[in-house]
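Input/output pair, single chain:
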Amino acid sequence: MKISETPKPPYYAVIFTSTRTEVADGYEQTSMRMEELAKMQEGFLGIESARNEVGITVSYSKNLQANKNWKANEEHLLAQEKGKDTWYKNYTIRICKVEMEYGK
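Output:
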């Protein structure tokens, strides 16, 4: 996976941090589908993900409305329920405004 190429700030980041249950039941397929769908959302800028003991996914968008639209996506709502009921022991979602970025 490559680092997302984001525009000059400001923009928004949604950070999803989770720990998984032992139940796999369609998790990988759903995860891949959610990434495909996220990329189709108006305002989507990029996504980065790492999954081991703690899963961390960061999704970037142009504005808060883009985040709200993605959260309300019908297929995403179904995946959210499956995650709450089956795949995650716990999770935290943080929504941040990116004011500055730098790197190599």
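Strands lie at 11-20, 44-51, 55-61, 88-98. DSSP finds three helices and four strands in the chain.
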